Predict the 3D structure of the following.
Amino acid sequence: MTFTFLGTGTSQGVPIIGCDCEVCTSSDSRDNRLRTSLLVSHEGKNVVIDSGPDFRQQMLRAKVKSLEAVVLTHEHNDHIIGLDDVRPFNFMQHRHMPLYGRTSVLAEVKKRFAYIFEENPYPGAPMIQPVEFENGETFEVAGIPFLPFEVMHGQLPVTAFRIGDFAYITDMKTIAEGEKEKLLGVKTLVVNALHLDWHHSHLNLEEALAFIAEIKPEQSWLTHLSHRMGLHEERSKLLPKGVGLAYDGLVI
Ligand SMILES: [Zn+2]
Ligand SMILES: [Zn+2]
Ligand SMILES: [Zn+2]
């Protein structure tokens, strides 16, 4: 199974429109971060976690030619708003795209994309098949077992996923003790870290490193990064052993 980081940037992406900071103007491709998304591939089949504003570009860049499903972490626009671009997969695969989410997330998607879910949608509109999951109940897509569990993004619940000994957490600020147990024995952990300062709904670098030290995976990757995390090259040198900044295109 492979995991490809399609995007590792926070909601505005990096570079940010109009910003002249050293990160936003860096010539290192690892400082270019599309909005956070992960491709999970298994025996030639692909599932994507989140479909943010860069979804189309991410599918093109990673040369994704078929897609079994879209799995959502939460309803913020930087994680869902590219959903309209599943249309090429609808046309190629001649079927609806399964869209996995918790009940509240799917309800919000139906509001924001009302035109998709009309009784008689416009011809050519995306074809989406919503599929609800419950936290703590593993579901399988394309032979990939997703165990959803809950983290908190300020006041908003966000779904994180464990797939075997791999775990993917984005947009977390806190996690309940009971949910932490789902991470027991995880070898590879992906977790969000925004920048160095305090934030009401995201872990900062210090908090993310403390969380990693508690979970003790063999390898961790930080994602959902702001330009204020600093240059990839320089920040990476300052991280503890076994912790890296993820970057777009990284495959594990
Ligand atoms: Zn986000
Ligand atoms: Zn900047
Ligand atoms: Zn969010």
About this structure: The chain has one domain: 2-245. The pocket of zinc ion (ligand 3) is lined by residues 74, 76, 153, 171 (CB under 6 Å). The CA atoms of residues 222 and 245 lie 5 Å apart. Residues 2-245 form a domain with the Metallo-beta-lactamase; Chain A fold (CATH 3.60.15.10).
